[in-house]
Every structure is written in C-alpha cells, then in structure tokens.
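ugh ok fine here u go
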Amino acid sequence: MYRLRSILTIVFAALIATVAASPQPAPPVIVGYVFPQNGALQHGQIDPRGMTRINYAFAAIQNGRMVIASAGDSANLHQLTALRKQNPLLQVLISVGGWSGSAAFSDVALTAQSRAGFIQSALEFLKSYDLDGLDVDWEYPGLPGAGNRFRSEDKRNFTLLLKGLHERFAQESSHSHKKLLLTIAAGAFDDFLAHTEMAQVQQYVDAVNLMAFDYYEAGPDAITGNHAPLFTDPADPKKDSADATVRAFETAGVPAAKIVLGVPFYGRMWQQVLNANHGLFQAGKPAPNGEPPYSVIKVTFLDHSFTRYWDAKSNAPYLYSEEKHVFVSYEDPESLAAKGKYVRSHKLGGMMFWSYFNDSSGELLGAIDRALDVPDTGQTISK
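structure:
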C-alpha cells in the first residue's frame, strides 16, 4: 500500500509539473485605434487601462519611406508611449496606410529594392518613437480601394513585404531583446482573401485585425442592413456576418489565435426607409452624416423618437424612427458582450475597435473589457 501511494504521489506530481510547463494560451488582446485626424492629443484624454494595444492612425508613405503624416504626430506618439507608466503592459504601434493612405503600397511592395527601402524606414520610425510594432493597413492589395494604384502582382508582393518586415524585425529584436510586433488590418470580404495569400501571410504576422464591419453601407447598398452582425440572419440578402468571415479566414489558413475581431464604435444610417420590419432590410437612401459615432447615437438618437430593436438572429441592435423614416445600424454593450463571448469560445486572439474617440463615455470599451475578462457564466448566445 505504501509503495502504491508513493507511486501515485510521483505520478500526480509529474502531471502537475507537465501542466505547469505546458504553454498557456495568451490572454485576449484589446486593440484600440487612436485616430486624432491631425489634432493634438491632450493629457488625460486617453485612459490606457482598458486596452492592451494602441494602434496610432496613421503614418504616411512618401517617396517609398514611412513618415509622419502631420506635424503633430511626433508629440502625439510621445503622449501615447508615456501612457506605459499607467499601464506597463500597454503596447503602442503605428498603423500605416488606411483607406485614404494606401496609394503608395503597390509601388512600395513592387521590387526587392523598394521593399527594403520601406522596411528600413519602418524600423527607423519604430526606433525613433520607441514603439512596439507596426500595423500594416493596406486597403487593399490587388484592388483599387480609394482609387489607388493596384497590380495583379500585389497578391504575391503583399506576402513578400510582410515576410521582409518579419525577418528584419526578428533580426533587430535579437540585438535589442525587445520584440517588435507586426500586425495587419484585413478586409472582411471574399475579394480580400482572393487577392492575398493569407496562409502564408499569417506566418509572418502576430495578429490579423479583422475589420468585421461595414457589411452594409448607405450608398453602396440600396437597402438597410446590420453593418456589424455577429451571425448571419437568414433574411439578410447578402448573407454576411463576422462569424462567416472568421470561418472564411480560418479556411484560408489563418489560425483562430491570430484573428482579432474588429468592432465599430460608429453606426451606419439610412433615410427614407419605409416602416416594414422596423426598417431592417428595406430600401433606403444615404442620410446626411451617415456614419454617426456612438457618442452621437447615444445622445441624439436613443430615446429621441427612435426605438431600439434587436435582431436575435444576428445578435445586432438597430434603431428605427417611424416619424423620421430613418434607420441606424450600430454596436452597443449587449452586442459587444455577445462578441466577447464568441471570441472566448472560439479562442480568437482578441477584439479590436475603430476608433477610440467615437465613444467619449468609454461605455463600449468598458463592455469589451467585461466581456473578455469576466469568467464564462454559461450564458448562451443565440444563433
């Protein structure tokens, strides 16, 4: 009996040691894009405690090199890196490109020489401002985006650019002993996957910030819809959702742990929408100021002739005014709680939002923090 107990003790101790030595999954990241739009950041304007990573938007590309986009960017970056004193775990990255800043990417990625020049400038930029990494926001390889130059070669060159950045960052980190992060912002649509090599790209990046929003936009879409649905509503003519996109990226070769689910802190708005199905999936026209930030939605629309509805199939809220015939698709704490649960249950890398200043109250960021940090209560998400 003593011998058996001794053996069991040894086996149990070995199991404990094995579990302790096993790599633990990284906690989910919370990535916030800070976009001051050429403005100056003020002391105390940003609370760094709710985020693990800040992506400052945007750096520019001039003559093949990465440079600051406006005179105030230098001071703003110093403001952000100083926030590490309040949150030592905070990582500060620079995002380059964006919807209106991606025109030079195709040229930069075109040749080994052009890639090398850009990569060297990116490294110098990171070192100059003591940053933790680079977020490449090319919108989009092989596609025109906002009237950008594009080529069929972009598909391969996008991979080569990221491979070069990854290798150069690893080389630098071996000397500095400071890891430099490399992430990308990815379009949540099939054409993005068709024009990239995500199975190869994912090898070189630490995270794929999936822009799982703008599935519906007034103007391009003649009918209303959920612009950031978690699941696909069978009644949705486009059959789009964050869940469908996540599955498509996983099928394309991106591990779940590298997918960071993006959410919008702004809405999409249509006018001249008839009162059928409370305005959802109905014909409509673009409304003035059709991308209201959540702070405006909360103060101006909620409880002001607008009624809030919940699409249980999509786990998405929306507003409709019978008086004004206006429809608003947006994100709120309830939908973010559902997405946080989805991120945990699917073991995704975390959540990302665009952008910090769209919610001055901090209500949405607080909802993300609770959704990702609070232990699972067992509550189910409808699907």
